[in-house]
Amino acid sequence: MAGRQQSGTSGSSGTSGSSGGTATDAEDAAQRMLQSVVQVRTTGGSGSGFVIDDAGHVMTNHHVVDGSSAVRLVLPDGTSTDGRVVGSDEDSDIAVIEATGLTVPAADLGRSADLRIGESVIAVGSPLGLNGTVTSGIISALERTSQRSAQPLVQTDASINPGNSGGPLVGLDGRVVGVNTSIATLGYSSGNIGIGFAVPIDDAARIADDIIRG
Questions:
Q1: Beta strand 45-51 with 57-60: parallel, antiparallel or unpaired?
Q2: Is there a catalytic annotation at residue 108?
């Protein structure tokens, strides 16, 4: 099973996984998730990813690693290591990387089926190459469609910019609820305008499992 998918609530302070959370909830969630997020560098650019198990598998987007068989992972402590692309799925925009001997802890996976509109979330990644960046917002809508993915997506107003792709969208309980995949730009710019999309983690985890199992 890829990732440590769980149900229920965690023992963090405040009201976890809901819009009633406090600033402390967001801080705690960010500190937990920053330990598991990496920058993914390829010859064509960079994106984000997060560790999903103790075997060194990293989830990211297909479009981040498309055309690459090998990547470089920049770890939370600033060091880097080589990674191998295990496989990817263009329709869902999900890919899996493997890094031998990776000591970065796996992120806890939540349940996107439980998401509610208005729920507070944070996005973690490396926008514009700035490692370990955290932005906050809410779940704006569910069951959205996008050119980037064949299945319904989660919409958020948490700032997502180039380089955030493949990073986690996280609930205030510190568990991943989506994989950030694209932004809406209306054709005017490539930056954030308050509308971003993420692959629901229920779908992403299932697809990652299929990729790992071959």
A1: antiparallel
A2: no
Candidate list 10, 12, 62, 63, residue with the active-site label: 63
Torsion angle defined by CA atoms of residues 60, 61, 66 and 70, in that order, rounded to the nearest 10 degrees: 0
Q: Is 63 a catalytic residue?
A: yes
pLDDT tens digit sequence for 45-74:
999 999 999 999 999 999 999 999 999 999
> Alpha-carbon distance 186 to 193, whole Å?
9
Q: Which two tokens stand for residue 10?
A: 């965690």
CA-to-CA separations, 47 to 12, 14, 142, 173, 183, in angstroms, rounded: 29, 32, 24, 24, 14
Integer CA distances (angstroms), 64 to 1, 18, 88, in order: 23, 30, 10
Beta bridge partners of 4: 108
The 8-class DSSP code of residue 18 comes to S
User: Catalytic pick from 120, 165, 202, 203?
Assistant: 165
- CA–chain centroid gap for 35, Å, is 13
Is residue 210 annotated as a catalytic residue, yes or no? no
pLDDT digits (tens, 9 = 90+) for 155-180: 999 988 889 999 999 999 999 999 99
Q: Residue 118: what residue type?
A: G
| Strands, E assignment, the chain | 4-5, 37-42, 45-51, 57-60, 70-74, 80-89, 94-98, 108-109, 120-125, 133-146, 149-156, 168-171, 176-183, 196-200
